[in-house]
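Why do we care about 3D structure at all? Because function follows from shape, and shape follows, mostly, from sequence. That is the central idea of this module. The next example makes it concrete: a single protein chain, its amino acid sequence, and then its structure expressed as tokens.
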Amino acid sequence: MAHILALLSDPAAWLALATLVVMEVVLGIDNLVFVAVLSNKLPEEHRRRGRAIGLGLALLLRLMLLGTLAFIVGLTHPVLRVMGHAFSWRDLILLAGGLFLVWKATREIHDSVEPQDAGAEHPERPAIGFASAVLQILALDLVFSIDSILTAVGMTDQLPIMAVAVIIAVGLMLAAAGPISAFIRRNPSIVILALGFLLMIGMALIAEGCGVIVPKGYIYAAMAFSAFVEGLNMLARKRRRGVRNGA
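And the structure:
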């Protein structure tokens, strides 16, 4: 208890908490895009509950991982060598997560652009199952959690600060997931853009798993620029519709 009170009165602890929250939110953008896209595949009445359960279990997973910091740090030790390159368990997890994201985004892009005719030989796929959506959210969060926790370890050694930062960040993700999912659902062109983001994130995870570090700033700058261009396109389409309606 005395240790907690000391942290509450320490300005450096509050600064570390604010820094960690910002870092967790930034690193959570990747996860948030995936949650938004995936939850839109659920039936409408299950979307909110699917996001809440998926992110709630993800929060519990992150807190459990924080309790095993020694094990998490040990994941960076080499366990496999292929063609002279050493891979750790973290590298293998990033590779698996990246491959899954690439596969998932490619499949969703195919489903989005493939024409669906009433008399088509292959009818439209049914909505994703609730349990499947929750498990996929949880599996991807495991990949992102290990990466963010290892980054947090390098910033502070105070477990309570890391735990509070994780709780705040996941709470913000849960609050933002609904509006982002609704925005993507209302704008079909945004779906392809979001899936393109997932492809880029997946390739970055694969590269990082192979030892090639892609700075996060480059990825987020590309995402921001693409979102800005799409925003201009949406504004132009809205104005064209207004001109046609006025005519």
